[in-house]
Amino acid sequence: MTISTLATLESIALHGKRVLLRCDLNVPLKDGVITDDGRIRASIPTIKYLLAQGAAVVITAHLGRPKGERKPELSLSPVAIRLSELLGSKVIFSNEIVNSSQAKTVKSGEVVLLENIRYEAAETSKDEAERTTLAKELASYADVFISDGFGAVHRKHASVYDVAKLLPHAAGYLVAAEIEVLKKLTQSPERPYGVVLGGAKVSDKIGVISNLLDKVNVLAIGGGMLFTFLAAQGKEIGKSLVETDLIPTVKELLSRAEELGVKILLPTDIVVAPEFAADVKPTTVSADAIPSDQMGLDIGPETAASFAAAISECKTVFWNGPMGVFEFPNFANGTKVVAKALTSVSGISVVGGGDSAAAVRKLGFNDSEFGYISTGGGASLEYLEGKELPGIVALN
Ligand code: ADP
Ligand code: MG
Fold first, then answer.
1. Which of 58, 151, 155, 321 has the fewest Cβ atoms within 10 Å of its own Cβ atom?
2. Which of 205, 209, 355, 382 maximizes ligand 1 atoms within 8 Å of its Cβ, making it the mutation to test the pocket?
3. pLDDT for 279-298, tens place per residue?
4. In the chain, which ranges are continuous DSSP H helix?
5. Does pTM top 0.70 for this prediction?
6. Are 185 and 172 in contact (CB under 8 A)?
7. 39 is an active site residue
């Protein structure tokens, strides 16, 4: 993908301008409380710059997947409060998305945050005309569009893609920084290059595994997806997560890796439990001997140590997807050991994925211990898969 022509924030005149800013404020919430504000923090530098330039700022963003309905639990209003705290200045929250009186009257130095853009069905519509109608409403608030919602740039959505066609535009600091890091991972990475993948589903990651296979030196597989790999090797996986329809694809990947001489590291031991719950008794078993009435919820200590050793030897590491169900302390060890290893990489270490970023913070690591913590899960993966990102293409 050609991204060299991405216009920067500094290249665009902003003084006295009304700016429509797309941010990624899609933070995890539990009972209305933000459990990880990383994405809000990551949005601050661009907002501060815009305000310092004397712009009037209207922010549009999404939260979760309300699918065109006004679901109160997916309101951005708690985000407006946190955003205001982090900015150290007032954020005006607008319940209305189209026809917002606050957005229409925003003044230089002010910030308006529009309610969850995905309350509007047109935002994610497959119909370009529908999306364009919404994009025109958004564009009517502004003279300039700044795209900084990296976590959504792989989506052909009205507030990400279509609106860029209607206004002069540029990438915000976050989008520029994310793309810069991804370029480092794809254009002649320093070797050895290791990729660690986990998380729940192989289907989310199969594309990236396939595309990276001839580019990496080591690929380590953990998380729920490892069981589809074990199943492909004919092993008993008990009640563990599995995507049976992908077993043939995984078999192909394994034999391609062998031909290419790429080391695929698979677990040798697994932490299992009788059911998916926080308070169940964990047992460590050999990956060859998972009892049929148990499910694997984390990689075992031997595996974690071997993944950590492989990571330490690498000069470039990309990690996406927790190694186990880190939300339950009994099954967080694998993720913790892998995260720890990433902090000691002498070259570049990148953590990608919403849950992975939340996991490292929850486990007590500091953002600064890693080379880079990406705000994008799907967007980073699609870039690494070699796909074009509509939200970036629209900026070119
Ligand atoms: P990211 O958001 O970082 O890309 P994913 O969304 O792919 O990560 O996956 C995160 C989820 O995967 C976590 O909620 C975690 O509990 C789950 N997970 C990890 N290992 C397992 C497992 N063995 N069984 C079930 N779920 C798992
Ligand atoms: Mg996730």
1. 155
2. 355
3. 999 999 999 999 999 999 99
4. 38-52, 77-87, 101-104, 128-139, 173-186, 202-212, 226-232, 247-260, 301-312, 333-343, 354-362, 378-384, 390-393
5. yes
6. no
7. yes
